[in-house]
Amino acid sequence: MTADFRAQLLAAQAKNASMLCVGLDPEPAKFPGAWKDDAARIFDFCASIVDATKDLVCAFKPQIAYFAAQRAEEQLERLIAHIQAVAPQVPVILDAKRGDIGSTAEQYAREAFERYRADAVTLSPFMGGDSIEPYMRWTGKGLVLLCRTSNPGGSDLQAQRLQDGSLLYEHIARLAAGEWNRGGQISLVVGATFPAEVARVRELAPTLPLLIPGIGAQGGDAEATVRAGWRPGAPIIVSSSRAVLYAGTAEGDGWNDAARRVAAATRAVLQQSRPPA
């Protein structure tokens, strides 16, 4: 397994012919059959999804809150170790959205990269450049900064106009592509629900990887997303969580086969939507 997140991501995208990231957001109330409401089965459920989709994805993205709320952090550690054992070419993005400074940020970095051994972590840049510096000490690890998020309320701050006439999310994109990215480790989060903003961020950050949540259950347009964000050598990571995880759980048996079918169909749509190189 390469230690460099960007190189690992590009290799996984080439090997699996995929821009799809499967988000791992386990909700025991939605688990199938006898596993329903059993938090002790979080690892088993997520590992079954990983095993069913590992050759269809460019990344997996476990969301830490779904594990911590169920006192399942140890299961998260096991899950990431499982991914790295069965799909060592596929990077793991820990979706934690941390944002703090100094010694606290150092501890969050240790949590992500030592305890969980993630290849990348999502971060909030609201506290400025020194809030991401402690993560840069982990050479090769990916720092995925919130920029233009998929939720409607993101506009409350991200779409505010600054004195220079730019919008706040545009300012973040410029910093991420410029002075903040000294180690070449930064990626950006841009929601699929705003394809015009995806295109604008790609214009401002022409080479950075973009993590794009919001397709599937959130209703983002997969084709518009790819057209806006994909460029040769400038990877996009299009994330789908609930639409894949729970594709067949209501049926009981066969939920992992249903997850694979949805993941394969989503991968195909994304690949077919790439503009000509």
Outline type: globular
Helices and strands, in order, run as: HEHEHHEHEHEHHEHEHEHH
The total of helices stands at 12
Counted beta strands: 8
Q: Order of strands side by side in the largest beta sheet? A: 2-1-8-7-6-5-4-3
In percent, how helical is the residue content? 40-55%
Low-confidence sequence ranges: none
The Cα radius of gyration reads: 18 Å
Give me the CATH fold name: TIM Barrel
Q: Which secondary-structure class do the elements indicate?
A: alpha/beta
Strand content: 5-15%
CATH homologous superfamily label:
Aldolase class I
What's the story with the biggest beta sheet? 8 strands, parallel
| Number of separate domains | 1
CATH class: Alpha Beta
Give the end-to-end Cα distance, rounded to a whole number of Å: 29 Å
Question: What average pLDDT do the residues reach?
Answer: 93
CATH architecture: Alpha-Beta Barrel
